[in-house]
Structures are given as C-alpha cells and as structure tokens.
Input
Amino acid sequence: MKTIFYFALLFKSIFMQTKFLLPNRFKHAGWIIALPALVLMILNIHFGFAFHFLDYAVKGTENIAFDNGFLFNIQYNNFTDEIGSVLLLVGLLLIAFSKEKDEDERISRLRLESLLWAVLVNTLLIILSIILIYNTLFLSIMAYNICTTLILFIIRFNLTIYYDRKSINKSNI
Output
C-alpha cells in the first residue's frame, strides 16, 4: 500500500504540476476535435464509412508474397480510420490535460485521483477482457481500449469536480 502512495506522490511531483498542463482554451479546441472524430470513428467501425479521397493503392505489387492482407496490406488502404483515431486521441489529450479556469491544489488532487482511478479501472477491464473474451472480438475490444483510459479519466474528473463544486456551494449557503 505504501508503494502505491509513494508512486502517487512521485507521479504528482513530476507530472501533475500545472506547468505541464495546457492553457484552459485548449479544452474547447479538444472538444471541437474529439466529438466529430468520435462520430467519424463510430461510423467507420460500425458502418464501414470511409472518405474515398483517402484511398491509397499501389499498382504492380500483386506478386509480393508476404502481402496477403493477413497482417498488413501495402496494395490498398484507406486512411479514414487512421486520421479519425489520431484526431480522437489528440482531442482527448487536449481535453484531459488542459487547466481548469480555477486550477488549484484541490483540482490538482482531484486530477491525480481521477487519473489513478481511470488507470485502475481500465486495467481491470483489460484483465476481464483477457479472461472472458476471445478471437476477433478481443481484438476489437483492444482497439477500443486505445482511448478508454482517457475517456474514463475525463468522465471521472469532470464528475468529481461537478460534485465537489456542488458540495462547496451547498456548504456556503
């Protein structure tokens, strides 16, 4: 238990200082980037939506023996999913690591607790997935898992701040 406490203190002293956080205005840009990218990724994954101007095809590579499409395919690719994934991750990072308008020690503590909680919950979800899910469904879940830690952190951090501010407002009345 002391090890986790010391890790949390070390993490806080290195990474959770406000000098490593982005200015608050980046949070709005993050939402503007992340929400359309999330919609694009849902459309791409579940409905096969793709921008055809992002198609990439190489002619004359049909005789390459290792290019059978199992692991990768250099003959054809559409970059819609790559662009959507990068935009989603960038947007989530901007949201997660932007300062609050009133950044103080209390907010910093809530940020650290939310980040540790998100990593713990995400790790438990991965363990459950490893135990209970197999084959291509497991690969799909691991693909979703790329953003899960950031999404869990953003949800928990914002809910914690909301309830914390609500309790402060009630105690001031």
Q: What stands out?
A: The first helix runs from residue 2 to 15.
